[in-house]
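Annotated sample (chain length 172).
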Amino acid sequence: MKSKEKFLVPILLTLLSIPAYGSSVIEGGLGVKLGDSFSGTEIIGNTTSEVPIYKFSPSKPLPKLDRYGVIVTPKTRKIVEIWAWSADMGSTAACREQLERFEVIFDKKYGGHKSNAITFGENVIYRHLENKISINCPISFGSDPLYLQYSSDAMEKLRLSESVDEEDFSDI
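Output written by the structure step:
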């Protein structure tokens, strides 16, 4: 081996062994994992499409967020989405400030998966394969909510397939 190669090989091996900044796999959060079974039964609310959100207690509550829930598949009760939110941050500026604080922390762990998608309102998205994290101050009137949501495309497909009554489509 040439002296140049002897020098480069250890450097390359060292660089390959260092994890990329902010590239943790998105599997879930708040002590809950997407795709895991959920046994809770208390409904804390519904989505705008009337999907129930079941209450849970996080392993470590986050500052400024006081509600925690999950969306599950209707038959197998697998976790599709994990939500943490505050119904009202008090002002749009306060919501934006807290979103930016979360963004700093999430960038350290998931920054390598940050999306450049254009969205409405203040929204930061991290996506890795079929899983996503969204931190959102939606455009609203009368309140200034802040949402943190973990979601799985694969689990959403399962939720939809478990929600469909195939007899309704027997004539197609």
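Annotation: The CA atoms of residues 161 and 167 lie 13 Å apart.
Annotation: The chain has one domain: 23-163.
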